[in-house]
Amino acid sequence: MFLGEMFLGEMFLGEMLQGEMLQGEMLQGKWRPWMICLPLLVAALDVSAAAIDSAASDSLILAEAPADPVITIRPQLQQRMLELDATIEAVNAATVSAQTSGRIVALNYDVNDFVPAGSVLLEITRREQSAVVDVALAEVTRAEATNIEAQLNLQRLQSLFKTGAIAQGQLDQARTAASSGRSAVRTAQANLIRAKEAQGYTIVKAPYEGVVTARHVELGETVVPGQKLYSGFSLAQMRAVTDIPQRYLDRVGADTEFVVTLPDGTTRRSTDTVRFSFADPRSHAFKLRINLDNLDAKLYPGMLVKVAFAAAERELILIPRSALLYPHALSAVYRMSDGKWVLTQVRTGRYSDDQVEIFAGLGSGDKIARDAYAVKGGS
């Protein structure tokens, strides 16, 4: 109504202004103060109307529906997480050993160096291996020549045997020589392959991309087959290793998700696990490996991380603090029973800012008062 009155006031003043202008009085200077004040008055009325409308709109926006004074208890299923310490280790970690003998003539990498896959780690002298290859080649040539001669002799004697020119014994000896010739060629060829492989072992290459953790030899040192040369690991894939207490063994399955928390607070999730089938005889715990991708290279062997998984489930009841009373140092709520409020003792758990956990005393479907003191004061 007030807004309507202001609108009518504006119309009235406008009509007055138009009437006076028609009478020419403004030209005589009688209405010049009105001309100055009138626009200001109209603007003030407009601002006031806008302010009132805005205040009315804000009051509508800020108004909230009152909370339901009755709360129906509905337990929530909560998972209890078990957190364990774990150590990061590389999935691929190995030691490269010598496969031939000789003196080391080149060492290309040292400890903590990053090594691309297929890179030459070191070189061993190959004079002895080259000599063995030459001997094997000569043996193959000799065996092949002997075999050719034996095969030709067998063919000739077979023709003579058909005409009766030779005895059966001579043919049998030719067949034996031809068979031995073929075997000698295969043996010589196998020896050549082994000699060439030994020659290739003089150049030692990295089996995969990774980091050198140990160098076991020095430049100029003579090595023998089986001697350690380099140790290292691959950064591509890591795993967190932990021990699962045997009482939680049934909670670890093929689809169990593990949350791995790194020292910087970031987390990784994985269901790719390998659980050992036997327990440690002293701790009676089962070792568990959790495979993790390491595309961002944030995981390194030896790091200490935290591993968590859902070890148990339980029903959780939360009520607002305002629903609690503390008569005689006990905790109680007003529970609806047969249409009346009945003071019911409860056992509480953890408290938060505005909620409290109920361990006992309430069940699913119970109705309690949101404001216990309001019920108490009204009773």
Descriptive labels:
disordered N terminus; four-stranded antiparallel sheet; conserved putative lor/sdh protein from methanococcus maripaludis s2 fold; 4 domains; alpha+beta; OB fold (Dihydrolipoamide Acetyltransferase, E2P); elongated; 21 strands
Structure description:
- This protein has 379 residues and is of the alpha+beta class.
- It folds into 4 domains: 2-62; 70-75 and 315-378, conserved putative lor/sdh protein from methanococcus maripaludis s2 fold (Beta Barrel), CATH 2.40.420; 100-231, RNA polymerase II/Efflux pump adaptor protein, barrel-sandwich hybrid domain (OB fold (Dihydrolipoamide Acetyltransferase, E2P), Beta Barrel), CATH 2.40.50.100; 233-312, Elongation Factor Tu (Ef-tu), domain 3.
- The chain is 34% helix and 34% strand.
- The strands form 5 sheets. Strands 2, 11, 12, 13, 14, 15, 16, 19 and 20 form a 9-stranded antiparallel β-sheet that branches. A 4-stranded antiparallel β-sheet has the order 3-10-8-5, with no helix packed on it. A 4-stranded antiparallel β-sheet has the order 7-6-4-9, with no helix packed on it.
- Strand 17 and strand 18 form a beta hairpin.
